[in-house]
Every structure is written in C-alpha cells, then in structure tokens.
Write a structure and sequence with these properties.
- The protein is mainly β.
- It is globular and about 105 Å long.
- β43 and β44 (893-902) form a beta hairpin.
- The longest helix has 11 residues, at 767-777.
- It starts with 25 loop residues before the first strand and ends with a strand.
Length: 993
C-alpha cells in the first residue's frame, strides 16, 4: 500500500536546526523525499489556488513562496520589498515613488499591472488600498506576523473571483501563537559617491557648477541616511484544553527620507548630451520653470533676471532649473499597527474565529518647488514691477505703457523661497473577519465568514501656488507710488499681495503667505464580503486510485465602494504644481457568485503511474449589468515517485473597478523625450513633417522649435473613466515538471512554462502611442486626439493628448520559472563537525511581454521583453534570478549569502514597424546586467533570543541611469528594481518569553 506523506509547512524539507529561513523561495510541493512515514494521516494543509485541502501539497498551478524568516534575513521592514525581489513580481507603488505617489505599496505580478494581481490574507481578499489606487496596500500587513507568502502564477478567478488575472499573492499569517515575542530592528543606507558609469556625470555636474553653483553641487563622498526603525510585539495564549487561542500584536515603524541630492547619479536631472556637455557625457537637463525665472513669449524672446531690475537672455543649458536634488529618493514614513486573531472550538462541529487588523500609515512625498509653470500668459505694460528696460524688452512701447495694454509674456519661476512641494498622505485602515467553521458530517466541512475593511485617506498638499492668486499677484498697478494688485483696487480680492519676481530678492514673505495654499482631499474605500463554502470527501474513487474524489462549492457576495472628496483648489486644478485637477469620485460595484471545485485522483501505485489526477474549478459571477464565467482545469501525472508532470488551463476575468468606471475627466502628465513636432536633436524621437504638424495645430513658425519641448519631459494628457467598459478576459496556460530524485536526498527542482493572454484590456491607448500613430502612421483618429494650444504646445496651458479609459487589444506574457532547493549535511562531504548547507534558487526567463493597443497598425503590437522606458516603463529583463546559500553551523550561528541578478535591457524606441530596438547611439541605449550580493547572519544567543545582522548590496553597486526614466522611475533610474540607495546595513533582535 502506498504510504501517504505530507508536511505541516511548505518548507519543511529545507528546515535544518529549526531554521526555515535557509530557503528563500521554494515550489509548493511534496516531492522532496522525506523519510517514510507511518500510516498515520498528518494534518491537511490548504495551499494557495484551491479550497480543497491536499495531503501531498502538489498543485497543478505553480506556487512559489517565501517565509517570515526570509523577511528577517533580508532585513526588510516593508513586506513589498521582499515580494518584489521575486522574479515573478514587479514593484508598482512603493516607498521610492515620490512624483505621482499614492502613498501605498503595491505589487504587479508578471508586470501585468497591480490591478491584475489579487492580494489575499489567509486566502481572503484585501480591498482597495486607496481612493486613488485600486490595488491592495501592503502597508497594512504587519511583517512580523507573516508566516509565509505564497505566489500563484496565472489566473485564479475561478477560485478567488475577479482580479486574479496575473496571479495571487497570499499572505499566510501566524496562528496558535503562545507566549510573548518582541522583535526590533534598526537599519540605514551607506553609499560612496564615486559614480564611474556611462555618461561622465560627475564631470558634468562640476561643469554646471561653474555657472550655477547653487543648483549643481556634488554630494559628500561618503553618506549615510535613510535610517529605519521598527519594533513589533506579539502576545498569544491558548486555553488549557487547547480548544481556543488568541493572539494580539502591535507594531511601530519609522523610515527617514533620502534626498536625491545626496547621490551623485541623481544630483542633477539627466538630459541628452549637448554641445556643452559633449557627445559622450550626459547633460544636466532641467525645467524651464526656473530660478530666478524665465520670461518668454515662446517666439521672439526668452529672458531671465540680470543685475538689478533687468532682463538678460535665458539660455536653457545654463538657466534650466535642476529639479532633482529636493525630490525624495525614499519617502519618510511612520506606521502603527495593532490587532488580534482568535479562534475557539465551541464543540466538535463548530469553531468560531476572528481577525481584527488596524494600521495607521503616514508618508510625505516631496518633489521640487512649485511656482508659476507658465501659468500667467501676459502682463500689463504699465506694471510698476517692470523697469523701463524690461518693458521695452518684451515689446511695450510708450503708448502701451500709457494705456496699460497687455503684452504676451509667460512667467515661469520656481518658488524656491517656499521649499519643495509636499504631498502629506495619511491612511487609516481597518479590517475585520468573523466566521464559523467545522465538520458537519464525516469528511465534510463548512466555512462561513463575513469580512469588512475600510481605508480612510486624509491628504494635504503643501507649498503649492494658487494659479488664481498668482494671476492676480502679477497683475499689478501703481497706486500713489505703491505697487498694488488690481484685484485690491477693484475689490475682487482685497488680500492680494504683489509677487515681485522681476528683481532678485523681490519676493516677500507676505507674498508667499498669499500665494501658497494647501490642497485637501479626503476619501475612503470599503469592502464587504460574505462567503459560505463546503469542502468534502465524496468517498468515491476511480478503481485505479486509492484516493477519493474531493469537492468544494459555495457562494460569495462582495461589495466594493469608494468615495473621494477634494477641495476647490484640487477640483478646479488651481494648484499650479499639479498635473491637472484632482476631482472627487464616488461609486460602488457589487457581485454575487457561486463556485465549485473538484479533484479527481486517476491513479495511485499503478504500473503505468505512481499517481495521476485531474482538478477543475468554475465560478459564475453576476454583476449589476453583466455576468461572467471563469473556469480552470488542471492535471498532474507522476510516472514514478521521483518525477511529476503538471499542466493547467484557466479562464479568468477582471471586471472594471470603481476608479476605472467613474474617474472624472481631467489633465494628468505623461513622459516623452521630445515632441515629434519640436526639436528632436539628441533624442530617439522621429521628426514629424511640417505638413503633419501644422495639420495638428502647430504654427509654421514653431515647427522644429525647442519651445514645443517640455524641459522636464512632461506633457499633458486628458484622462477619465468610462462606464461602458467590458470585463477583461484572460487565458492562462501552464505546464511543467517537478523532479525530486531519490538518489539525491533533499533536492528538488521545478521547471514551469507560463503563458498569459489578456483580451479586452481595460486601459488606454497611451499618449505616446497616440503621437506615434499620428506622426508615423498618419492615423486620422489618433491625430484627432492631439489638441495643441495656440503655440502648438502639449505641455503648457490647454494643450493635451486625449487618452481616456477603454477596452483595447490586450496584454500577453510568457516565460519559464525555475525553482530549485538542495540541503546537504557536511558530514556527507567529509566534514561532520561543520553543520550543513542549504541552497535555493528561483529564476524567471521572460520570453515575451506584448502590448496590443488594438488599433490594427504595425506599431500597435510591440514586445517589451528585454526593454525599458517609454512604452515599456520599468525594465523587463529577459532573465532574473535570486540564489541563496546558507551555512547552518553547529554553533547556533547561520550565515547566508544571496545573489540577485537582473539581466541586460535596452531602451524602447517604438518604430512604425512595431520594433523597439531603435535606440541608435544613445548613451543609455543599454542597461548592463546588474548583480547584487547580500550577506546576513543569525545567532541564537540562547533558546529565547536570536540576533541578526546583514548587509544588502555589499559591493555598493551604482544603479543604471537614463534620461528617459520620467515619473515611471525616480532619480534617473528605477529604484523599484535596482538598489539605488547604496548598501543597506541592518541589525535586529527577536526575543521570546
């Protein structure tokens, strides 16, 4: 008779000396050749991707996991930092995002978008993380309570419902804890500023400092910053008879900011090489909204402030504002968490359980100062703020001065006196689960639960200017020899104070107090879920199998609601430093569902199969205006005990969420190296023809002009929701093999192929794609979405590209995941006194990452595998891996070394044929492969106390840098992927009582 085998946790095969941390990531499976067991049936374990308990932990869909001990060894205080180091995961929002930050921490499996990644806690979904972001916020998860994290590849909508398109991240929390545990950790970054990579950046900063020493400063050679502190406590107790347990926890975390000025590779905003820098050196670019200012009509003049109250010519290569230094590389944050988990067995048929979780999270996203971003378009010639020289320079003659006529003059000046713009974000989150479960008949179990979650946002945006007040403060007349706002004279605004930017030192504190306004937003999200499920053993078996058919079925109701209220300044776009208005939103979606699963063993201990089985799942979902069907079928076959083949196919759906449906139309920003109708010198942008540009609103005189290019590389687009959206549909195919050779004890390897195709993608065509379609493909519909201002610009005033939500073509990705683990006693290698070694490896080969905008042209379909930036965003290396070796010594000290690898990528420059490898001779055409070494040690000082310490990025690698990063990255690189802050040192202690 075949012996049944299982284990109580998914890493038991890599646990030696009680340390599960020795394997970073392992496939969820049981073919690791544990010692033969007695006939005793061990506890069943539910694995991510199914509601059916499984005794052998073999899944037909690949599951990769990390453990709570991995969090300790990696030294992270943010769980997303660990999850995002898995090759399957890509960071979306996290602590390194400043411009455009929602303040949340999210994950994007397979880089298909965080909206397509479902996040669970103990198999139950999390709600929206923010009124501004539909993805779950990982900041709500207390890291010390995490027992393990399981990552399921591909669609799982049949089991968990909408959103599980790219896969599922399931946080399994500790349970039945007894005693008291206190954990504390301190860490900081250290970096040697000696950048010697491509582009001679340090030399360029030094060159620029010769003409603008205030804005171009090389940081100290050795810096340490970004300090982090965390302390967590867990208290647990069980009843004397073992029928109940309650566990409470509390935690505090604080992280200090890191400014871009403190790293040499981010101390200036990169630009393409120019005449000043030379062809092999990056230029230090910047913003035309400068200090002490730019005054221009975009046609005949461009000035800045000279000596006294005078204008002198503005030269972009000298006077552009270096907006990088004040931006946060790492946002500061502070978080409090507390909660309780409990269960009690009322009788042998019923156990009640509950989870209560609370978190309060605060962070500040700081970017460069606000100001007048070409917000004021003209000035009265009789303004007492203008000297005679200045008035004449902009074209005011005596008659115009006498009459107070107005001349075109855009004012672009940074509010350096007021400091950086600060987006203060505060999230208060609550989550509660209560239910009852038990066995109602032999082999049949039920689970009925209700859960409620709420996230409340309080947001205050500081140090921004009011466009309305700015316009009034620059519309100044002479009243008895005193410069006075016209709005004071006519009574429109008696509080107005003139903003004198026409002489150095002319701005007063009174003017700042008048111009600077706070912008306010409040909002909340709620989620209500009621689930009833039954799992059972049918008692029926196929004649060739000893295992019986297992089933699960049930029903679920879910309601997601979201509301946001913004003040008038946000709602009208009155904040000068905003990309556009932030408009309130309110809406909800609800769904009623029924679901079912079945697992059919086909063979056990047969001549032709050691084991074989089929499984299937189905879910019917009814929304208010539509219904969806999702399903899955999988199979596994082990011809012998050592090898197992598995395959699965699933159909998943993602219904449009509240944000995608109901977001009001308003401006936002997109990144581009240049306007195709402007000056494209030094960029990879293809020059449009004069006829094409004039047809879309560019004046002939401005064709090819640098005035069409945003110095900061940011352009306006019009975004908005769409209540007519259809659900996305995704097909996922996986197949692979798991090998656990009996002749190599404690070794296992799995190789799995994945292929995910998403149709009817809920997205937008993309503003960059619209420009390419118009100017490269002469697509009339795309050209119709381009709306230029009177000067032909897309970055000033009312110029924009329309890019509203829609169902477009789709996304597709495919690749191969490899997981391997090996444990060996050094006694087997002739060193019996030296403990054991543990090896683990997880890697992903990315074959394709295809976007189809659905417009039917050659450039509508492009593959971002191996590319970064522009249409491709965050780098998508074709190969990523993480490998770890740990020495478990016999002296209660364990040492770990981890190798993280990210393959080479190339900048994406889309051509009319859909190719992306068109970077030409750009300095940043290629990002070299990046390799990081992390070291860590744990020392069990006594039975109840463990110390840990480590260094991540031991070699202090500089990140890869580019001038096309835009707001997708930060600080000229992608800190979501690369270690942009230098070495990270951490020290921690865990004490149990």
């Amino acid at each position: 008779m075949r012996t049944q085998k299982t284990r109580n946790r998914l890493l038991s095969t890599t646990m030696i000396g009680g340390f599960a941390a020795l394997a970073f990531a392992a496939p969820a499976m049981a073919q690791t050749a544990p010692a033969p067991q007695d006939e005793t049936q061990l506890d069943e374990v539910v694995v991510t991707g199914s509601r059916i308990p499984q005794t052998n932990l073999v899944t037909t869909s690949p599951v990769t996991q990390v453990t709570g001990e991995d969090i300790d060894i990696a030294g992270v205080t943010r769980v997303e930092d660990l999850v995002n180091q898995l090759p399957q995961a890509f960071a979306a929002q996290n602590s390194t995002v400043s411009n455009g930050s929602s303040g949340t921490a999210t994950v994007s499996l397979r880089n298909l978008g965080s909206s397509r990644t479902l996040v669970l806690i103990d198999g139950r979904r999390m709600g929206y993380g923010s009124p501004n972001d539909d993805a779950a916020d990982l900041n709500q998860i207390p890291e010390q309570l995490v027992e393990r994290v399981e990552v399921l590849t591909g669609g799982a909508s049949a089991v968990y419902g909408s959103d599980a398109v790219a896969g599922v991240v399931n946080f399994i929390m500790k349970k039945d804890f007894e005693g008291v545990q206190i954990d504390a950790q301190y860490g900081f970054y250290q970096h040697n500023n000696d950048y010697d990579g491509v582009g001679n950046l340090r030399a360029e900063i030094a060159r620029r400092a010769q003409t603008n020493a205030a804005q171009f400063v090389l940081p100290d050679d050795n810096v340490s910053d970004g300090e982090s502190r965390s302390i967590n406590a867990i208290l647990g107790a069980s009843t004397a008879d073992g029928r109940g347990n309650v566990m409470a926890y509390a935690g505090y975390r604080n992280n200090n900011p890191v400014l871009q000025r403190d790293r040499d590779y981010s101390a200036c905003a990169l630009g393409a090489p120019n005449a000043g820098s030379g062809p092999t050196t990056y230029s230090c670019g910047g913003s035309g909204t400068s200090f002490p200012g730019q005054f221009t009509d975009f046609s005949t003049f461009a000035y800045t402030i000279g000596a006294g109250r005078t204008f002198v010519p503005y030269v972009g290569d000298v006077n552009a504002y270096n907006f990088g230094p004040l931006n946060y590389y790492q946002r500061p944050d502070e978080r409090y968490t507390f909660g309780a988990f409990g269960r009690y067995e009322v009788n042998d048929k019923a156990e009640v359980f509950a989870q209560l979780m609370f978190s309060d999270y605060q962070s500040v996203a700081q970017i460069a100062p606000s100001g007048s971003f070409f917000s004021v378009a003209d000035i009265n010639c009789d303004s007492p703020l203008l000297s005679a020289q200045q008035a004449a320079a902009i074209g005011c003659d005596a008659a115009e001065i006498a009459s107070g006529a107005r001349e075109d003059m855009y004012v672009a000046r940074r509010n350096v006196e007021g400091g950086g713009r600060q987006d203060s974000l505060n999230y208060t989150s609550y989550r509660g689960v209560a239910g009852i479960r038990g066995e109602f008949a032999a082999g049949w179990n039920y689970d009925v639960a209700a859960q409620f979650s709420r996230v409340r946002l309080g947001r205050t945006y500081l140090n921004d200017f009011s466009v309305t007040r700015l316009t009034r403060a620059l519309d100044v007349v002479d009243v008895g020899g005193t410069p006075t706002c016209r709005s004071v004279v006519d009574g429109t605004d008696p509080n107005c104070v003139p903003y004198d930017v026409f002489i150095a030192g002319g701005v007063t504190q009174e003017a700042l107090d008048y111009l600077q306004i706070p912008l306010m937003q409040t909002g909340e999200t709620t989620q209500q879920v009621v689930t009833a499920a039954v799992t059972g053993d049918t008692g029926w078996a196929v004649p060739t199998a000893s295992r019986t058919v297992q089933v699960a079925f049930g029903a679920e109701y879910r309601r997601d609601a979201l509301s946001s209220t913004t003040d008038n300044a946000f709602a009208t776009g009155d904040g000068a430093g905003q990309g556009g208005p932030t408009i309130g939103i309110s809406g909800d979606t609800d769904v009623a569902e029924v679901f079912g699963e079945i697992q059919i063993p086909l063979a056990d201990d047969q001549p032709w199969a050691y084991s074989a089985s089929l499984d299937a799942a189905y879910r019917r979902s009814e929304y208010e205006n539509l219904g969806t069907d999702t399903y899955k079928i999988g199979a596994d076959y082990a011809p012998i005990e050592d090898i197992r083949f598995r395959a699965s196919y699933s159909r998943s759906v993602r219904a449009p969420n509240v944000i995608e449906l109901f977001t009001a139309q308003g401006f936002n920003l997109f990144d581009a190296d240049a306007d195709p109708c402007g000056d494209v010198t030094g960029t990879s942008v293809q020059q449009a023809t004069l006829a094409q540009c004039t047809a879309t609103g560019v004046p002939t005189a401005n064709y090819g002009s640098g005035a069409l290019n945003s110095p900061a590389g940011q352009y306006n687009f019009l975004q908005g929701g769409n209540t007519a959206l259809n659900p996305e549909e995704a097909d996922t195919i996986t197949y692979g093999v798991v090998w656990t050779p009996s002749f190599i004890p404690r070794f296992n390897i799995s190789v799995d192929y994945f292929d995910i195709e998403v149709d009817q993608l809920i997205s937008s065509v993309g503003a960059l794609n619209t420009l390419d379609l118009c100017y490269q493909q002469n697509d009339a519909a795309a050209c119709g979405r381009i709306n230029r201002n009177a000067n032909g610009q897309l970055w000033v005033g009312d110029g924009f590209v329309e890019d509203l939500n829609n169902n477009i073509g789709g996304l597709a990705t495919s690749g191969i995941d490899i997981n391997a683990n090996y444990g060996v006693d050094l006694e087997d290698w002739g060193a019996p006194a030296y403990g054991s070694l543990q090896f683990s490896f997880v890697g992903t080969m990315l074959n394709e990452l295809i976007t189809d905008t659905g417009l039917g042209t050659a450039s509508s379909v492009y593959d971002c595998a191996g590319f970064y930036a522009n249409q491709c965003g965050v780098p998508n290396p074709e190969w990523r891996h993480r490998a770890r070796v740990t020495w478990v010594s016999p002296w209660d000290v364990d040492l770990s070394a981890t190798w993280r690898h990210y393959g080479e990528v190339e900048i994406a420059v889309l051509a009319s044929d859909g190719s992306l490898n068109n970077g030409g001779t750009r300095l940043d055409r290629y990002f070299d492969a990046e390799n990081y070494l992390d070291l860590a040690a744990t020392w069990q000082v006594m039975d109840t106390v463990t110390l840990r310490a480590g260094v991540n990025n031991v070699l202090d690698n500089d990140p890869q840098i580019s001038y096309s990063v835009g707001t997708t990255g930060n600080g000229n690189t992608y800190p979501q992927l690369y270690d942009a802050l230098g070495r990270y040192f951490f020290f921690g202690v865990t004490a149990n009582f």
